[in-house]
Amino acid sequence: MTDVLRVLLIEDTDTDVLLLERALRREWPDLNLHRVETADALRAALEADEWDVVLSDYSLPGFSATEALAIHQELAPDLPFIVVSGLIATEDAVELMRTDADDFVRKDDVARLAPSIRRELNEAAGRRERKRLEAELRDREESYRTLYRNTPAMMHSIDREGRLVSVSDYWLEHLGYSIEEVMGRKSVEFLTGDSRRYAETVVLPDFMRTGTCTNVEYQFVKKNGEIIDTLLSATAERDADGTFVRSLAVVTDVTEKKRAERELVRTNRALRTISQGNQMLVRATSEEQLVFDMCRIAVEEGGYRMAWIGFADEDPAKMVKPIAHYGYEKGYLEDVVFTWADDDRGRGPVGTAIRTSQTVVVRDLAEDTAFEPWRDAAIKRGFRSSISLPLKDEADAFGAMSVFADQVAYFTDQEIDILTEMANDVAYGILALREAAHRRRAEEAVARSKMNLQAILDATDDTIGMVDVDGRMLAINRAGARRFGCEPHEMIGQPFSTFYDEDDARLRRKGLDEVLKTGHPVVREATWKGQIREARLHPVYSDASKPVAATVFSRDVTELRRSEEQLRKLSRAVEQSSAIVIITDIDGAIEYVNPKFAEVTGYTCEEVIGKNPRILNSGEQTAELYETLWRTLAAGLEWRGEFYNRRKDGSLYLSSASISPIRDADGKTTHFVGTAYAHGSGCELRPPDIAVEARVLNG
């Protein structure tokens, strides 16, 4: 607790200034008190210096607390404002509180001033902290959205129905869709039939239960119909109750890798009451505990017959819902109905206190006409007088505290003041607990946002990071950090060049500079630690027109490049073969012919793609030959034989052919491949056996 207090005092009486200064200095030895008496002086002081609290007399010559409050609201609305005055009408004090004064302390009760100041200072600090946390949460969420939009990876989120609620730009770009075409649709709609069935029957039920899945193999279908092989890793985001909110998924296109694998085989009574109440405020950890204990303290320490607290519902009926009670209640709250509507049941003390934010005292319950709907039930339980006090937040009453006594006209002015303070304490406590809960939720949301962001980054084996314009690491996933023998926290904030040798650092700095300068993505490949790694750098913008950072997505493409090279070799071998090579789909439509085919038949590649090999049929073969051919192929075997085929110019040639099925990893025939040797127009030569697809050639 600090001994320093900066007080701006609005007071025209010297003795009162000394009185207040003496009272305050007992609590704050290092007191800085500045006195003003006019509006101009007040305005100048508020504009020139910083203060902890404003204390104001109710009335000064030519100036008043009301005018001072208006200036305070204009220049420093968050600064606590407490009216400290002598004689003042109750309605004037209430009006000041209604117009945003934080508290009212009488000069003959100056002992209340220090607790009041401490309470208001704490409340102001709470407001500042709430604003700070809210701003931090907004910043975190914006950072999440920025990374989500700019990370060069396929990322998406689905709701509990499995419908897409967000997708990354890269996801859209990669699959060829616009945002309007995908939002709201089920993610499984973009999968092949087999992948969709697997997702709906196995993966999604298990994911909704466990909240995680890793490296699930799916096949996505691009807008253009192209099928890509992917690995999907996801984690579930849940609310405070553990209810599924959305998924956070990273999809890695492993088409090339899979293809390569397939192809190479992936607070006296008043004081006690207030004291106990204040202690309760300090100890309370929940609203339920606080409101019950405040009712208990009012009855046990205050000596009242019964106390209860109710909150105003915002439903059309405007019901008042009892939340806690203590004392001789005996079913009273169950036998009667309370509202805060402007009707018969809402014009009683409780409803009026809530609706008008004013304290309502009923001196004699048996005579008060407004209390008629509840009279019999109250008299039956020994209630003779009551007071209903609004529980207020910064604007309106959100509930009321009602206290019953067993004597008529029981509540003195002093007791009313005490109970008013107690009600204010209750309201403060409730709001403080709600603020604390809100703050906890905000902190938890910030933590979840950070955790979810890291989970996204860590859901892939590839390296994902972000680097600022100075080359310092802003973020990196676990897989990326471990490639350098580090954990992410060990790298964040460090220059990325620390983790490379001089040549590698220079090369990567060059790519970063290019992205920051041009604002365009950059793709680079380099060999590092024996791997060929492909790095994709994308610019990240804030409100400025120039990039403020770059995201980096790096993957190992060593095997991919080796596979591509092998495929190129195989392709050249087929292209340069002296044998005719034809590949068709299972329906016999030609998908590929090599140059030798064009040379022998006279047909160009463009002329035959999509056609059936029957265009070569000369009509010279017997039906038995074709029956044998089909039986052999239906059995999944290779067929060998000879055909007389007809060239484009009509001439015939003898062809020794071999036809074989091409099967996928599941053994399913997907294509036919045939090779053949042409011998000219006769049949005098018979070449060695070569594997050829019969249906391709003579279907």
Describe the secondary-structure layout.
Blueprint: E1 4-10, H1 14-27, E2 30-36, H2 39-48, E3 53-56, E4 59-60, E5 63-64, H3 65-75, E6 81-85, H4 90-98, E7 103-106, H5 113-150, E8 154-158, E9 164-167, H6 169-175, H7 179-182, H8 193-210, E10 212-221, E11 227-238, E12 244-253, H9 255-264, H10 269-283, H11 287-300, E13 306-312, E14 320-327, H12 332-335, H13 349-356, E15 360-362, H14 375-380, E16 385-392, E17 397-405, H15 413-458, E18 463-468, E19 473-476, H16 478-482, H17 488-491, H18 502-518, E20 522-528, E21 531-541, E22 547-556, H19 558-575, E23 580-585, E24 590-593, H20 595-601, H21 605-608, H22 623-634, E25 639-646, E26 652-663, E27 669-678, H23 694-698
Parallel strand pairs: 1-2, 1-3, 3-6, 6-7
Antiparallel strand pairs: 4-5, 8-9, 8-12, 10-11, 11-12, 13-14, 13-17, 15-16, 16-17, 18-19, 18-22, 20-21, 21-22, 23-24, 23-27, 25-26, 26-27
Fold-level CATH name of the largest domain: Beta-Lactamase
Strand content: 25-35%
Name given to the CATH homologous superfamily of the largest domain: GAF domain
What's the overall geometry?
elongated
The side-by-side strand order for the widest beta sheet comes to: 2-1-3-6-7
The DSSP helix count reads 23
How does this structure look, described?
The protein folds into five domains: 4-111, Response regulator (Rossmann fold, 3-Layer(aba) Sandwich); 154-264, PAS domain (Beta-Lactamase), CATH 3.30.450.20; 269-435, GAF domain (Beta-Lactamase); 461-560, Beta-Lactamase; 577-698, Beta-Lactamase (2-Layer Sandwich), CATH 3.30.450. Helices cover 41% and strands 26% of the residues. The chain contains 23 helices and 27 strands. The strands form six sheets. Strands 2-1-3-6-7 form a five-stranded parallel β-sheet, with helices on both faces. A five-stranded antiparallel β-sheet has the order 9-8-12-11-10, sandwiched between helices. Strand 6, helix 4 and strand 7 (103-106) form a beta-alpha-beta unit. Helix 2 (39-48) runs parallel beside helix 3 (65-75) and helix 10 packs antiparallel against helix 11 (287-300). It is elongated. Residues 681-699 have low confidence and may be disordered.
